[in-house]
Amino acid sequence: MYRKIIAALLAVVLCLGGSLPCALALDFEAESAFVMDGDTGEELYSYNGDVARVPASMTKVLTAYIIYQELEAGSITLETPVKISHNVAVKSRDSSYPTAVPLTEGATYTVDTLLHLIMIPSASASCIAMAEHISGSESAFVTRMNATVKELGLNATYYNCHGAQPNYITARSQAALTKIFIDTYPDILRITSKSGFSFNGAYYNNTNHLLNTMAPYEGLDGFKTGTISQAGYCVTTTAVRNGRRVIAVVMKSTSDAQRFADSRQLLDYGFDQIQKRDASRASTSVSVTAQPDSVRPYQPASFTVQLNGVSAAYVAKAQWYVNGEPVQNYGNSNFQVTANKTSTLNYTLRELTGDTLDVSFVLTMQDGTERHAETSVPIEQRPIAYTGSFNIQSAAVYPGKTLTVTADVLGENGINRVQLPAGWQWDGQPIAGYSNAAFTILNDRASSEYTIKIPADSQPGMHTLTFVVGPADSTGVQQLVLSADIEIVSQKNIQEDAA
After folding, report:
1. CB 128 within 8 A of CB 122
2. Which of 26, 32, 52, 293 could form a disulfide with 168 if both were Cys (CB 3.0 to 4.6 A apart)?
3. Nearest 5°: phi and psi at 112?
4. Contact 52/87 with Cβ under 8 angstroms?
5. Is the Cα dihedral 408, 413, 414, 419 positive or negative?
6. If DSSP codes are grouped into helix, strand and coil, which group holds residue 181?
7. How far apart are the first and last CA of the chain?
8. Strand ranges (E), 191-243
């Protein structure tokens, strides 16, 4: 009951969040449910969608997917004969491997026939036959199954190829696998859309009863059921209406009839959401503002886009651009579009790139259409500049002694925080451990300190200590170089000078 209340409250929230007619209230029995836009992969609804559960014979979706991988690779064809082993023949008659579709030991059946048996009556032994044919053994095939879901980025773990015993997958990942399968190998719908299949003189109904013994669901073309005690009643379904596909996953429902009732309303909900989100996409507009209204190098600027006309939340691709180039870390392929949402680009110009900074925001819809806004702000042709000094201009030191030198950096740029590469050098060479790629200058002031320790075996001579702020070839900042002459003298010479 609690689940039903939460689902109903969610529907009410969705109604209040937009101006379109109220969303369908959800009232299902499944322990997990997930609804996906089958074209974009967008989540339309999730309840415990990321909880790993037993899929039972929905396992066969991955088994069939790997079979299609082999078809694509050319290692088999739909007409390739598959020989039935003693192991498979025995299990094909074992009631603990539902559904029991008897296969004859030593006989051969085509890959296409076995695919039909796997996906329509859910024949578990047919999965083992294909596993042995492809990988040599079911265990080797299961290893491939787990490698495959890892490659696909799915949250799933498999111990067998058929689901007659527990495997684990989330409802979200089951939906994602189904979408990948349909997108990559749409021929599978030729099989999953059939109401039944004749084999060896017997007719087997599709276990997806929305295709046969129940009232048909408009546009349904598959996909796969699953039922064992640990799983409850599961089903993945998919349908197309008005050129749009919805995928719904039901896991651990309470009965055979209930899983299809759950699935039916989840599909309805998915199509309702797609309609609303498509309308929302069509009405969305964007506008962008800049702060401040002109920029100069190293002066932080922000650009904010406002999304208007969003009547229902949806997902789109979003990207900020500066001077026609995408800004790194300011793009999102799963940007959540909601009413009155804003997105802000924080940008710091480093170089004098021209007279204006051209900034744009592009929102790309699932059908490729775009909503975009742009602005141009003048670039002040003033590189930042600093002056500075050492606490000494020159010094004479003898071996074994130390000398502390402080560099003070000052400016009149009016920028409260600037970070520049900086470092100490000895005779033009960087001093190890005394470089900073992000030397911070706050309110035009900064300092750095270096303590020189003259090695005891140093030879007398003149040297130059330098502190450098900023890159040498930048158009956005004038490099600051501070230096002091350091003479290494012998202790004897210092004593003679003092006398």
Report:
1. no
2. 52
3. -65, -40
4. no
5. negative
6. helix
7. 100
8. 196-199, 202-205, 220-228, 232-241
| Nearest Cα residue to 284 out of 298, 301, 305, 270 | 305
Nearest to 462 by CA among 426, 491, 498, 492: 426
Backbone dihedral region for residue 10 (phi beyond 0: left; psi -120 to 50: alpha; all else: beta): alpha
Q: How far apart are CA 67 and CA 444, in angstroms?
A: 67
Q: What is the pLDDT of residue 492?
A: 63
Question: What would the two tokens of residue 188 be?
Answer: 């599978």
Give me the active site residues, please. 57, 60, 122
* Block residue for tokens 């074992």: 94
H-helix or E-strand containing 326?
strand 325-337
Peptide bond into 292 cis (omega under 30): yes
Nearest to 112 by CA among 75, 77, 88: 77
| Spacing of C-alpha 44 from chain mean position | 17
The residue type at 98: P
Judge contact between 4 and 27, C-beta under 8 A.
yes
Task: Over range 95-114, report the average pLDDT.
Answer: 93
pLDDT tens digit sequence for 50-77 = 999 999 999 999 999 999 999 999 999 9
pLDDT of 157 strictly over 80: yes
Q: Output the average pLDDT for the chain.
A: 92
**Residue given tokens 């599978």 in the structure block:** 188
Closest by alpha carbon to 118, among 164, 79, 158, 157?
A: 164
Quick one: CA torsion of 350, 351, 353, 356, rounded to 10 degrees? 50
Q: At what angle do helices 124-135 and 60-73 cross, to 10 degrees?
A: 40
Token reading at 398: 């003898």
Confidence (pTM): 0.77
